[in-house]
Amino acid sequence: MDYFNPKKTLGQHFLKDLKIADKIVNSLNRDKKDLIIEIGPGKGILTQYLVKKYSNLYLIEIDKDLLPLLKLKFPKLKKKILNIDFLKFSFDDFIKKKNISIIGNFPYNVSSQIIFKIIDNIDHIDCLVGMFQKEVAKRICEKPGSKTYGIISVLTQLYFDVKYLFTVSPEVFTPKPKVFSGVIYLKKKKKILINCNKKLLHKIIKTSFQQRRKTLRNSLKSFKIPKSITEDSIFDLRPEKISGEDFIALTELIENGKATCE
Predict the structure, then answer these.
(1) Could you give the residue ranges of the DSSP H alpha helices within 127-178?
(2) Where are the domains of the chain?
(3) Between the CA atoms of 34, 31, 70 and 109, what dihedral angle is there, to the nearest 10 degrees?
(4) Is residue 105's pLDDT more than 70?
(5) Average pLDDT in the 164-189 region?
(6) pLDDT value, residue 162
(7) Do 229 and 259 contact (CB within 8 A), yes or no?
(8) What is the C-alpha to C-alpha distance for residues 134 and 150, in angstroms, rounded to an integer?
(9) Residue 230 pLDDT > 70, yes or no?
(10) How deeply is 68 buried, as exposed, middle or buried, from its count of CB atoms within 10 A (0-12, 13-18, 19+)?
(11) Among 129, 147, 227, which Cα is nearest to 184's?
């Protein structure tokens, strides 16, 4: 029953190393009664450690063919195993609670989308422990000035304190991926000081990095920013040099300058 043919379309690579699974779960370090959601439990290698530590655990698994195995292994979780695509999951419809902790070995092909989904639902989330493709994990934790610093770096670090925990070899997966993985920890900031239009802020960040080799003066032309505003020295910089706090200040500057975006 434990044998399962991985599906390439879902990016399935099943972790098989029990020590690493235990290490990932221990990295979460939450209160026993906290609400925990595991995304993509697969065959339950993380789940077997999670059920021992947490009494309020939910599983979100997109692959319906894995449900019988999960229900057989974890009969107490039968009513808490949700067969749904996490990217379509509604926190508001499902549960009103806040301070939810997320954990998972995320499929490489949707891992960035999972992060953006979590950012969009930041009011519900407290922390995350996740395994990503190593390059993505490093990018999430990257600081300004790096060539790999980008949209996901800025947006994640606006809302979370981020920490790269450890690297995982391809050898501990079935099937073996072609790349290394990285486990990261995200903890929601105690104070998220965003005193500007969040929608505009996100749009400015994304637009800036779409032409990351250009200065902000050129990459943000579509916003029709008054010339008097673009004379500010921040517009001489490329987006990779700018922190999240700088992007907030930039957004306030553009807002106050009555810029219009096409």
Answers:
(1) 134-141, 151-159
(2) 8-188, 198-256
(3) 80
(4) yes
(5) 94
(6) 98
(7) yes
(8) 15
(9) yes
(10) exposed
(11) 129
CATH 1.10.8 fits 198-256, yes or no: yes
Query: Cα-atom radius of gyration of the chain, to the nearest Å?
Result: 20
Sign of the C-alpha dihedral computed for residues 202, 205, 209 and 210 taken in this order = positive
pLDDT in tens, 124-155: 999 999 999 999 999 999 999 999 999 999 99
* 124: three-class secondary structure by DSSP: coil
- Whose tokens are 């505003």? That residue is 229
Does the N-terminal peptide bond of residue 239 adopt cis geometry, omega within 30 degrees of 0? no
Residues written for the chain: 262
Tell me the two tokens of residue 138: 């490093």
Give residue 1's pLDDT. 46
Element (H, E) at 185: strand 181-188
Give residue 9's pLDDT band: very low, low, confident or very high (50, 70, 90). Answer: low
Fold of 8-188: Rossmann fold (3.40.50)
Distances (CA, A) of 209 to 151, 247, 251, 253: 6, 12, 15, 18
Q: Report whether 53 contacts 75 (CB < 8 A).
A: no
| Per-residue pLDDT reduced to its tens digit, 60-87 | 999 999 999 999 999 999 999 999 999 9
